[in-house]
Automatic annotation (TrEMBL):
The keyword Flavoprotein applies. It catalyses: 2 reduced [2Fe-2S]-[ferredoxin] + NADP(+) + H(+) = 2 oxidized [2Fe-2S]-[ferredoxin] + NADPH. This is ferredoxin--NADP(+) reductase. It is an enzyme of class 1 (oxidoreductase). It comes from Luethyella okanaganae. Its EC number is 1.18.1.2. It comes from the Bacteria. It holds the Pfam family Pyr_redox_2.
Amino acid sequence: MTRLRLAIVGAGPAGIYAADILLRAERNFDVSIDLFDQLPAPYGLVRYGVAPDHPRIKGIITALREVLDRGDIRVFGNVRFGEDVTLDDLKRHYNAVIFATGAVRDAELHIPGVELEGSYGAAEFVSWFDGHPDFPRTWPLEAEQVAVIGNGNVALDVARMLAKHAEDLLPTEIPANVFDGLKASPVTDVHVFGRRGPTSVKFTPLELRELGELRDVDMIVYDEDFDYDDAARAAVSGNKQVFVIDKVLNQWRQREVGRASRRLHLHFFAKPLEIADDGTGRVGAIRYERTAPDGEGGVVGTGEIREIPVQAVYRAVGYFGSPLPGIPFDERRGIIPNREGQVLVKSNPDGSNQQMYGVYTTGWIKRGPVGLIGHTKSDAMETVRHLINDLGNWWRPESQSEESVVAMLEERGIDYTTLDGWRNLDVHEMALGEKQGRARVKVVPRDEMVDISLGRAAKA
Ligand SMILES: Cc1cc2nc3c(=O)[nH]c(=O)nc-3n(C[C@H](O)[C@H](O)[C@H](O)COP(=O)(O)OP(=O)(O)OC[C@H]3O[C@@H](n4cnc5c(N)ncnc54)[C@H](O)[C@@H]3O)c2cc1C
C-alpha cells in the first residue's frame, strides 16, 4: 500500500490539527507523521501567546494533547527548520511537508519615535509574560503611565496584564520572574488608543467585559467618544457583538470612579501620530490626532492634536509571519504564498505562480495572523484535502524509514526532545505548581526545558 511520510513543521494548533485531520481522513494510503518544532514544548501560541489568566483558552492544550497522546504522531522538539533541518533534508526523508510556523513577531508601525527606549512591540511583551525561552527574563516595568496602541484582543491582553495587580495573577501559570516583575511595577495609568470609534473595534465583548472586573482598577471612558453618527447607530442595532460592546462601555460611563489605585483608559477616535522623546532618548509622551467619523464607516483626522505623558508605549497593531529558508514568502502579507494551502512559487516564464510540489502550509503562516485557534482547524481541513488529492505529485524520498530521520538528527548532535520529553517537562511544571498551590509554574530557560525533557535535570 502507498505510504505517506509527512513532515509538519510547527507544533502549534494548526500543525497538530493538520496531523489529526489527516490521520482521521478517508484515504487509500498509510500515513506516518513527524511533527517538528523549534521549541522544546509544543502548542505554539496557545502556550506562548494566549494570556495566562485565560485558563479556559489555555485549556485547549488538553484537546491538542489528546491528539498527541494517541501515539500515532512523532514529535521532534528543539529542532529548527532552516538551521537544524533544511528543505533538502526533508525531501530526502519525506513525501511532503506542511509548514505551520505561525507568526511571532510584531507588525511594524511607522510613526516617529518607535525606536525610543521604552517603546515595545506587544509580541515581545507577550512572549515575556508567557515565559517564551527566546526572550529576555527581565522586563523594564518602570513606567507609571503607559500607552497601548491598538484596538484588538492582543491590545486588551497587554493592557490587562499591565493594569492587573500581580497578586491576582498568582493562581495562573505565570513564571516566577514574571510575577516578580509585575509585582514591582509602579504603573498607575494604562491608556489604550484606537483610531476608530467604539462601534468599530476589533476586540471581542468577552475580552472587553473582563477589564471591568479587574480588582482596584477603574475603567475610564470618555463621553466625547459616544456621540454616534448614523453608521455607528446602525452598527449597534444591526450587530450583536457591537451591541454588547456598546452596552458594556455605556455601563462604565455610569460607574463611579476615583477610588482605585490604577486606571485603564480607553481612548477612541485617537490616532497615534508620534511617540515623543523625553529629551534623553526615552519615551516621554504620546501625541495623537483626534479623528471623526467620515460617514462611510471610516474616520478622518480633525487636525486637533493632543498629548498624554507616558513613559512606555506598547504597539499592539498585529503579528507578522517570518520567512523560512528555501520557502517562498510574501513580504507584504507576511505569509507563505499559497492556493488553499498548496504553496505557490513564482517560476513560470510570465512571472505567474505555480504549485511547489510536496510543499503545503496551514494556520497563521498560510492566511495571516488573524482569527482564533478554532479557525486553524478549517485551515487544516482545506490543506489536508489538497495533500491527499495531490498523491501523484508527492516527493519520492531516498528513504521512507522512520529511523533514518532520527539517525540524521543524532548525527548532527541535535538535542531534540520527544513527546515523552514533553511529558517529563509537563509533569515537572505541574509539580512546581503544586508546591505553591498553583496549577503549573512554567520553566523558562531553553536549556533547562531540554534538560528536564531529556531527564538530565538531576545532573545539571
Ligand atoms: C497574544 C495572543 C493572544 C491570543 N489569544 C487567543 C485567545 O484567547 N483565543 C484564541 O482562540 N486565539 C487566541 N490567539 C490566536 C491563536 O494563538 C492563533 O490562532 C493560533 O495559535 C495560530 O496557530 P498556528 O499553529 O498557526 O501558529 P502558532 O500557534 O504560532 O504555532 C506555530 C509553531 O511553529 C513553530 N515554528 C515557527 N518557526 C519554526 C521553525 N523555523 N522551525 C520549527 N518550528 C517553528 C513555533 O515554535 C510554534 O510552536 C491569540 C494570539 C496571540 C498572539
